[in-house]
Amino acid sequence: MTRVWMIPVLLVLSGATLATRLGTGGSPGGAAALLLVFVALAGVSSPLIFPRSLGAREARRRSALDGRPVVYWRPGCTYCLRLRVRLGRGARQLHWVNIWRDPDGAAAVRAVNDGNESVPTVVVEGRPHTNPDPAWVREQLSSGRNC
């Protein structure tokens, strides 16, 4: 759990430190803007913008029942963030597994990526796809066969 929040907390602390220095230097408006930027970056790198994560076993079970893809991800991953943002509301249709919270999920990702925890790894109909194009993932959702 701590590892998930490490990057966002470091961003907020760094932003607060820099904003304090800038504010005491006579630029309170610049300090506030800088702090806002760091807080926004912390929010984007936190798990808060991702749909609720499931365990790998539960995600695979649900995927087998409804045909929806499983996405293995981790906080702080820019490629995971890109996928999440570009999917928009469609992201809620996928089954998300945070590999930092679920050892089975991390093991599943390592098994299909030569021992590496490369994310996002999207599993569609039992076939893994590492860092797929978000447009392709959207096609899988809209094709009807996976939803």
Provide a descriptive summary of the structure in words.
Keywords: Membrane, Transmembrane, Transmembrane helix. It comes from Streptomyces kunmingensis. Residues 70-127 form the Glutaredoxin domain. With 147 residues, this protein is of the alpha+beta class. It has 2 domains: 2-48; 51-142, 3-Layer(aba) Sandwich (Glutaredoxin). It has 6 helices and 4 strands. The protein has helices spanning 2-24, 28-45, 56-66, 78-87, 103-112, 134-142, and strands at residues 70-73, 95-98, 121-124, 127-130. It has a 4-stranded mixed beta sheet. A hairpin with a 2-residue loop joins strand 3 and strand 4. Helix 1 packs antiparallel against helix 2 (28-45) and helix 4 (78-87) packs across helix 6. The longest helix is centred in the first third of the chain and has 23 residues, at 2-24. The radius of gyration is 18 Å and the shape is elongated. The two termini are 31 Å apart. The model has no long low-confidence stretch (mean pLDDT 87).
